[in-house]
Design a protein that fits this description.
Layout: E1 3-4, H1 6-9, E2 19-23, H2 25-32, E3 37-39, E4 43-46, E5 55-59, E6 65-71, E7 77-84, H3 92-105, H4 107-110, E8 116-121, E9 130-135, E10 138-143, H5 152-162, E11 167-172, H6 174-177, H7 180-183, E12 191-194, E13 206-210, E14 213-217, H8 232-240, E15 246-250, H9 256-263, E16 268-272, H10 276-288, H11 293-297, E17 299-303, H12 307-316, E18 321-326, H13 338-354, E19 356-366, H14 373-386, E20 392-397, E21 414-419
Parallel strand pairs: 2-5, 10-11, 15-16, 15-18, 16-17, 18-19
Antiparallel strand pairs: 1-12, 2-4, 3-7, 5-6, 6-7, 8-9, 9-10, 11-12, 13-14, 19-21, 20-21
The site of S-adenosyl-L-homocysteine has 17 residues, from helix 9.
């Protein structure tokens, strides 16, 4: 059993007074179709002012129940819908059921020597604005709205009833981290619960397994919750195609794709990322896998450099690879940045092809939800045609099993595997 730390026991309890809401007809249609958000502008009537985390019940014009969700007066996403059609009491039991359902979906991963995965993928697992990632015995709970604060005790209790872990670490989204008044003493990176015999924070970096490979992550300071779990299946594809190949992994972070390529038998793997902590972690991840003969035998090189500059330099040096992986950060934060993002994707395709051998494989991904799948794949193809190397597609891929999608905006990850003449 884990110990509930003071951070959690001091939080306010959910208000017993529910807010009653009516919404516009288009919002009602979207809700019925499964969209999990009610925007402030869609609210036509509201019983009283609410605080973050109050439960808001949405009714139609005949006073029939449409849904219930978490109210957040600080965000244009005013209500995040938890339950629709059939009324339910939102309590520890309700959270328990949601976590159990999500856990069952991830069961196949645990059979694949994998104990690092996303247990709760927010909206897509019915808990909007909340993410829970597992890294072996350390769990990381990330919040995107203050509306979860009064419910955190119940969520943590439900998590303890369904999962075994030593530490539960809290991460806050960038926006939420600035809302000090709503946090009631919660801080980014703090431990919420811990096994009494394990100390209050994990000692050092956390090690976990993904498809039999060992990775470390820093759940307190790392990007996302410490690792890009969403690329697991694409990494596995790279492992399957790397035998005897030279592989360039651009935007490599802590070397996820690099380790899989080496384990798949790549003879040479170059990783490029401008973050020195990330390339240092890559070097340690290589060390963590020296028990794998292919990893032990592979030749690794890591470059802490800007990706665009590194690619241009490699072209100037006539360096060429059998496989080039391009997995940049999100390029479009909002709609106005989509065109610039597409131009950057095209530029990357061009630079990637410049260092890809004839007949080699290009792997290019986008995690910008604002850039549509069609726009992204079109941009890559257009750029490849312009460089005189029209691509032949091997596969288009999307989300891994632990990152399900249940509504349109939930789909953000897309990746193309293609050969270039
Ligand atoms: N492929 C990785 C995840 C990539 S995340 C994985 O599987 O784990 C994007 C990475 O790009 C981050 O590590 C970030 O440090 C790096 N990055 C962002 N802009 C960059 C740039 N201009 N040059 C090099 N690296 C960059």
């Amino acid at each position: 059993m884990t110990e509930i730390l003071p951070a959690l026991s001091q939080l306010p309890s959910p208000s017993t007074q529910r807010i009653a809401l009516r919404i516009t007809a288009p919002a009602e249609r979207a809700l019925k179709q499964g969209h999990p958000w009610i925007f402030d502008q869609s609210i036509t009537e509201q019983s009283h002012k609410g605080a973050p985390g109050d439960l808001a019940v949405i009714f139609d014009d005949k006073r029939r129940f449409l849904g219930v969700g978490l109210y957040d007066p600080t965000s244009p996403i005013r209500v995040r819908v938890l339950q629709k059609i059939k009324p339910a009491t939102i309590d520890n039991n309700w959270f328990h059921e949601k976590i159990k359902t999500a856990d069952a979906i991830r069961a196949p991963l645990r059979k694949q020597e994998t104990d690092g995965y996303r247990l709760i993928h927010g909206e897509n697992d019915g808990l909007p604005g909340l993410v829970i990632d597992r890294y072996a015995e350390t769990f990381v709970l990330k919040l995107y709205t203050p509306a979860w604060v009064p419910h955190l005790k119940d969520v943590c209790a439900a998590l303890q009833q369904t999962q075994h872990f030593d530490h539960l670490i809290l991460r806050l989204s960038r926006t939420l981290n600035k809302q000090a008044d709503e946090l009631h003493g919660l801080t980014d990176g703090m431990t919420l619960t811990a096994s009494p015999d394990k100390g209050q924070t994990p000692e050092g970096l956390v090690l976990f397994k993904e498809n039999g490979l060992t990775f470390e992550c820093d759940p307190i300071n790392g990007q996302k919750t410490g690792f890009f779990l969403d690329q697991r299946e694409n990494r596995e594809r790279v492992r399957d195609m790397s035998e005897g190949k030279s592989v360039l992994n651009v935007f490599s972070y802590t070397g996820g794709f690099s380790l899989y390529a080496a384990d798949g038998g790549a003879k040479e793997v170059v990783s490029v990322d401008f973050s020195t902590p990330a390339t240092q972690a890559t070097l340690r991840n290589i060390q963590h896998n020296q028990n794998k003969p292919n990893v032990k035998n592979a030749k690794f090189e890591t470059l802490d450099q800007d990706a665009f500059e590194a690619l241009m330099q490699m072209k100037a040096d006539n360096r060429q690879f059998d496989i080039v992986i391009l997995d940049p950060p999100m390029f479009a934060q909002n709609q106005s940045q989509v065109e610039t993002a597409l131009a950057a994707y095209r530029r990357l395709t061009h630079l990637g092809l410049d260092v890809l051998k004839r007949g080699g494989i290009l792997v290019q991904a986008s995690c910008s939800s604002r850039v549509s799948t069609v726009e992204f794949f079109d941009a890559i193809h257009r750029s490849a045609r312009e460089t005189g190397r029209p691509l032949e597609e091997i596969e288009r891929t999307g989300h891994a099993l632990d990152h399900p999608i249940t509504y349109k905006e939930g789909a953000y990850l897309k990746c193309l595997f293609a050969t270039a003449p």
